[in-house]
Structures are given as structure tokens and as C-alpha cells.
Amino acid sequence: MRQSKRFRRALQGLEAMIVWVHDFAKDASEDGLSRQHLQDAVVVRLLDSGIRALGIGNVPEPPGNPWLNLFVNTIRHEDHYFFCLTARLDEVVRPERNRQVRTIATTWETSARGVVRKDQLQKTVEKEMDELIDYFTYDYFMENPR
Question: How far apart are the C-alpha atoms of 84 and 71, rounded to whole Å?
Fold first, then answer.
């Protein structure tokens, strides 16, 4: 099942972003899921599509300090996992009511969730994450034609 809050127009003019896959449950790691593997796969996928994806610590940071945050939430029950994946672009914004204020806000987001057998966790999460990145690249190029 997919949920979507994809505000595509917020991607206009996006030059680059920092990509980060956040840590997830230890049992998911023990059952084969690798944060670093997902991180590398997403960065390579974005770079291959022509989108500048940066690692943490790159200088200078892109305007607005955008981060494509990827969250993998899992709950294990016996031989199954419930999972929820979220891809979310967070960046610095200024509210119209007070342009002096700067804060971080989510400007684009999509997610997927489901249930999978333990032995299929890694394959399923990688496939679903790939689909979330498909949504991102589609929206990105709709707003930033080559």
C-alpha cells in the first residue's frame, strides 16, 4: 500500500541533496537488511539518473540544505515483518507570515508499507525503496526538465 504527499512543485530548482538512510531495528539487520547497502543503492540510483546526491559532510551544502531522508521501520512477529518505508525531502523554509524565521520542513514525501516473510525482507525492502526513488526521480524531472 502506498501513501503519498508528493508536492512535486517543491522540487523546482533543486540542485542537489544530501541522502541519508536512517538506522533501523537491530533484528532487521540480523535478518539481512543493510543500512549501508540501501544508502549506497539510493545514491548510485540518483546519480545514474542525473540527480546530484551528496554524502554527509560535502562542502558546500546545497542551497536550502535539502536532505532526502529514508526511513525503514520494521516490526517482527515470528517469521514475518510488518514494514513501513518513507522517503522524505526535508529542507530549510521560511514561513510567509514571518520571513525572518527559518525552520526545517518536509516539502516532499511518499511511503510504502506491507507485510513480508522474514526470508524475503531484504529483497522486498530493496524493491519497495527502489519504487519510492522512482517516484522521486519522476517528480524531480517533471519539475526540472533536462
Answer: 8
DSSP 144: S
Question: Domain map of the chain by residue range?
Answer: 2-143
| 24 bridge partner residues | none
- pTM greater than 0.85: yes
Per the document, the length of the chain is 146
Q: Give the amino acid at 75.
A: I
Each residue of 77-130: pLDDT tens digit? Answer: 999 999 999 999 999 998 889 989 999 999 999 999 999 999 999 999 999 999
Residue 143 has phi, psi (to 5 degrees) of -95, -20
Which CATH number, 2.60.120, 3.40.50, 3.90.1170, 3.20.20, labels domain 2-143? 3.40.50
Which spans in the chain are helix H? 26-30, 35-49, 121-143
From the list 140, 132, 120, 142, the residue with the least C-alpha distance to 1 is 132
